[in-house]
Amino acid sequence: MTEQANKSLQNFLLSRELSNKKVLVCILNWGLGHASRCIPLIESFEKLNNEVFVLSSGPALELISKNFPGRKCIDSGEADMRYGKSSLATSIKIALQSPRFIRNIRVEEKLVEEICQQEQIDFILSDNRYGCRSKLAKSVFLGHQLNIPVPIGGSVVQALNKRLLNRFDEVWVPDYEGPQSLAGRLAKVLDLKVPIAYIGPLSRFNRKAAERMPSVYDKIFILSGPEPQRSLFEADILAGKYTESSDGRMVIVRGLPQEKGELKVPENWASFNHLNTEELLNLIEESKEIVCRSGYSSIMDLHTIQRVAKLVPTPGQAEQEYLALLHKSSDLILGNS
Question: How confident is the model at residue 246, as a pLDDT?
Answer without folding.
Answer: 73
